[in-house]
Structures are given as structure tokens and as C-alpha cells.
Design a protein that fits this description.
Blueprint (H helix, E strand, L loop, with lengths): L1 E6 L5 H6 L5 H9 L5 H8 L3 H4 L9 H13 L3 E6 L5 H15 L4 E4 L12 H9 L2 E7 L6 H9 L3 E5 L13 E3 L15 H15 L13 H10 L6 H14 L5 H9 L9 H18 L3 H8 L3 H32 L9 E4 L8 H12 L3 E6 L5 E6 L6 H7 L2 H4 L2 E4 L3 E6 L4 H14 L6 E6 L1 E2 L7 H7 L14 E14 L5 E7 L5 E6 L12 E2 L2 E2 L5 E11 L6 E11 L2
Parallel strand pairs: 1-12, 2-3, 2-4, 4-5, 5-6, 7-8, 13-14, 16-20
Antiparallel strand pairs: 8-9, 9-11, 10-11, 14-15, 14-19, 15-16, 17-18, 19-20
Helix pairs in contact: 5-9, 6-9, 6-10, 6-14, 7-8, 9-10, 10-11, 10-13, 12-15, 13-15, 14-15, 15-16, 17-19
Amino acid sequence: MQKKWQLRKALSKKADKELGDYPELVRKLLFYRGIKTKAEAAKFLQPDYERDLLDPFLMKDMEKAVGRLLEAIWHKEKIVIFGDYDADGVPGSAMLALFFHKIGYHDFSVYIPDRHNEAYGLSPETIADFAERGVKLIITIDCGTTDVAEVKLANEKGIDVIITDHHLAPAELPPAYAIVNAKQPDDAYPEKMLAGSGVMYKFICALLAKDRFNIPAGWEKWLLDLVVIATVSDMVPLTGENRLLAYYGLKVLQKTKRLGLLALLNIIKTRPANVTEDDISFMLGPRINSASRMSHASQAYYLLTTYDESEATAIAKHLEGKNLERREAVEKVIKEVAEQINEAELPPVIVAGKEDWGLGMLGLTSSRLVEKYGRPVFLWSKNVNGVIKGSCRSDGTINVVEVMKQAGAKDFFLDFGGHAMAAGFSLSPEKVSELAERLISAYKKVKKTEIETELLIDEELSLDQLTWETYKLIEPMAPFGMDNPKPVFKLKNIEIAEVKYFGNGGLHLELSFKKSDGKLIPAIGFFASPVPDDPAHVFGDIKLAKGERIDLLATLEKSMFKNYPELRLRIVDLKKAS
């Protein structure tokens, strides 16, 4: 994979004039994010909840969905909250359950499937079970849009289904009582990219607009800590209404009274007041996801809904342990894959598996192996039902779904699906011996794409320009994420003052650079140190040692490690000095 450093196009004269009230760097950063007018800039930099929150009833079927749930509450019907098992579906399920608790409604249950041994979304087995229990209404969260047969079965058994989801809508939609999903072709809702929990938040807002249930005004805003966890974890664009929900969600998270989140933040040694979107991406989200990957997502649900401090602490410790297990399992599989393949003569596609590899971390491990070997990776294991299940990741040169189609599609696989870059599959155990040969053969037939990663540079700075004043210009643009990336700065021909390795035997890299006043500014590269015991460690073909000169791409950030503010760089890429 080639990496091309590209300075962004110059700020247009029209935008420069229109945004003239802002400092030059801010004008450029706004322009590069598609913001060209004063009004757009004001809305972006100063979000306003009352002004910017969209009317939930603009979403198709919202009125129907709200009416049906209110009817179920009035008639005391049995309701099932059916949530997906990830860090979007679980917080969304918790939000609706907390709403029911708040209004004193208890005739409901929460069902989150087992990630390893059940299908994604509704299944005939769960529908039959719900019918036997006398359930009259199912509300899905972060799933359901593709469950045509399952919703038909629910209808036959006298169960209404309200789907709340954000995934792409297929040509044939399920015959649900209501589908609340802005991605439906004829949906007029302006924000198409809400997370599943974002959709649920809008649903709860709509319910309270119809009936407050004597709940104090503004209570729903205290659910935004769960919305921001889901929005950041699910990597939806942090623009438009998502930016609004994430912006206020972080403020709520920084003041959260949720016992489970407080316990988890205590374990990761982060004060609530210091939490950022990075903490969600790298600390909170992975631990919530570790529940479904390493045990069951219900643990994460209980963490988010418990009112018992001792239970919150116990679950947080459990999830921390599972997250550690996950990391250790990933490293173990990476090592075992290296033993299974000939690294001197790598095949074009890496296919590996063992029956005892944990199913929950195959996708994570595949991504790490793509980074290591620079080619597509397919990993598999066996679930408790004896079925081979796997995950695959592309290096960007091929569409992994097309490779599986070419390998035999459903004549060979029991099931497969996903996206061009990431997908999953299952097959009978007797066919696993053919898997590698079929995939390698299919790879040779599918269309290849030469990939070049373009790293966009927002501005070139000197070391002396890396100040708290510069950081304060950038800070109002947070929260950063998809479609609102952290600004990337180029530092040219800078001399390395120090090289350090840290974390778990030296997994991570820290370079330091000396400014003209003699002060050092650190630059951190996580998982960027494969040979930490080599004092002249080579990063690609670049020698990283004191006195060497490099060109660096980095973001500027405030670290609160040990709750002490430090200005530092986060390494994006580096080259020999030009």
C-alpha cells in the first residue's frame, strides 16, 4: 500500500472573506470540512440543542411507532426490547429499558442474541419463544430492517414489530407495524446517518412529546451519555445531528451518574470530567464490545442499567478482564497464524483457523494481520453448534464478498455477507479443508484495485507553533471522528531528540522533539514499535534514533494521562527528511 502525502487545496478567496472573523488556521480547517459561510461556521462551532435538534416526527412511521407503543403501555401488553449485541445496540436497548423504568412500566423484557451461536437480528426460534410467552410487541434496536421472513412469522403469531434501525434498507422491507429508519428510500428525515441508538433516542423524544408520563422536562437529555458512546463506537459521521448528539453527549458523559460507567471509568483511571471521544473509541467502546465478543452482551447491558454500586463494580471488573482476555487472545492468534504460514513465501490471501480460537475476536485479529502482512485475511473457528464461522478483512485491493461469491457462494458457504472491506461467513466443518484453496483461486479471478492511501495535510507547522494557543483554536471543532477528522499537520525536517518505547513490553513508540526554547514535545505512535529492544529501530525504511531527521504527519492533542494536561502529538505517518 502506497501512502501519498497531499496538502489540501488552498482556501478560496470567497470563503476566506466570508469567514474573515476567524483566525487563518480556523478559516482553513472550516473550509476543508465543507464549511464556507458564517452561519455554517457558527452552527458547527457552537452547537445549540434546542435550535439544531430535528423534529423526530419527520422520520417515516415515527407517528405510527409511538402510537403503537403508547397503546401497548396503556393495555399493559408484554413487550420485548430486541437489541443488537454491539456498542450501539446495547446502549440503545438500555435507553428504552431505562425509559420503561422511569415511567414505572415493568411488563417488558430485554433480549440480546448470543453473538457466537445465534443469527444477527430476529430468528424463527426467538419469535416462537416470544409467542409462547404471550409477547404482543417487539421493538428492535440497531437491527431488523432485513428480517422479512421473521417479521412475517411474528405477524402470523399475533405479534406486532416496531423496527428501529439505521442499516441500509433492502428492496423488500419487512411487513412490520412500523419501520423507523431514515435510510428508507422515501423517508424525508434530513439526517440519514444516525446510529441505532441515535434512532432510539429520537423515538424516546417522540414518545415524550406525545405523553410526558409526569417525567420532568429535559430528563431524556441524561440519556445522551449512552447516545455518544454508541455514536462514536459505531463510527457514524460526526456531522449534522450526529455532531449535536455527540457534542452534548460528551457533556452528559462527563457528568454521568450512571454507576456502571463510573465503575468502568474508575478501572481505566479516567476522571469523568476528562472523558473525550478518544476515550470512547479506545477505552469504553472496546470494553462494552468485549462482553459480546468474549462472553455475552447482556453483561454490558446490566452495566449500563444497574442501580447497585457493588454490581456495577463487579461487572466493570468482569468486562475489564474480558477485554484483557480479548487482547491476549488476539496476540495468541497472530502468533499461531505466523506458525501456520510460510512468511518467506506468503500466499496472496491468508487463510487460517483453529477450532479453539475465540469467535469474538476473529475480526479484530484479521484487521491486525492485514496491517502486518498487507494482504486479505480470512480467519475461522468453530461455534458450540459445530458450525465453522469466520471473519475476513480486505487490504483494499479486492472486495471480500466478491471473493466469496467466486469461491462458490452458497453452494459452498452456509452463509456469508458484509461489505467490500469486512465480512463474515459460515460453512460446514467437512468443507473447511477446501477453504484456503477455493479462496486463493477466487482471489486470482476477481478484479483487483491498486490502492494508494492519500493522507491529507491541513497545514504545515513548525515545532514552535505547537502551543496551547494553537490547540485552543482546534479544540472547538471536537468531537472528532468520521467526516470530521482531527486536523493533520506536517512538520518538516525535524530532529529526533529522544526515542522511547512503552506499554506491555514496548508495543508503543514515543519520539520527542526539541523546540527553540529547549522544551520537548512528545509524539506518540500506538502499536508502532514491533522491535522495541533495537535502539536504532527501523520504522519502515526510516531509522528512528536520536539525531535523525524526519518529516512527520501528526495531530495535536491534549493528553490527560494520570489526570495531568500535556500537549502532545499523535503520529499519523513519518518519512525520511526531504
